[in-house]
Sequence to fold (166 residues):
Amino acid sequence: VPEKGINDLCAAVAAMPPALRERTVLQLAGASGWTGWPKSVRVQDMGSVPHAQMPDLYRQADVFVYPSYPTHYWLEQWGLSVAEAMACGLPVITTDVGAFRELLPPTTLQEQTIPARAWPTLREKLVNLAESPTLRRTLGQQNRRWCVQEYDGRKLTAAYQQAWRT
Fold:
C-alpha cells in the first residue's frame, strides 16, 4: 500500500547519482502487484515471501528501508520486519513515525531515521550507506547487538510475566 512509502523510496533511488543508481536493485518482499515503477529504478518484486525464507532475503541485502508515513486513518505500528532485519545485522532506514523510533538503538536514531515523506533525506542516507561499507557494517552490528539485548525471548517473557503480576 502507498502508506508503506514505496513511492518515496522509488523517488529517492531515482534521484541517486546515475552510477550508484545503476548498481542499486530494490528487492520488494510482499504482494504489491504494482507495476508503475520508474524506468530508471531497478526493481525485483519478490511477491509474497514465506516467513521462513525472510532471514535469507535479509542476509542478501545491504540495507533495509521502510519509509512508512501516516495518513488520516493509519499509523505504522511496531514493525516486525524492521526488528527482523536488525536481528540479521542490517542497517535500516525508516521514518520517525509510529513505534519505529522505539525499535532502533537510541544511539543510532539520527543515522537510521528520516521524517515521513522526506525522500530527499532518504536519498542522502542511501547514498551515504552505499558509499560506506564501514558505516553499513557498524550500524548493522549495533542493530544486531541491540536486538539480542532488547528482544531476547526469555527477557521479554519475564517482562510480560512481571507486568501481568502487577
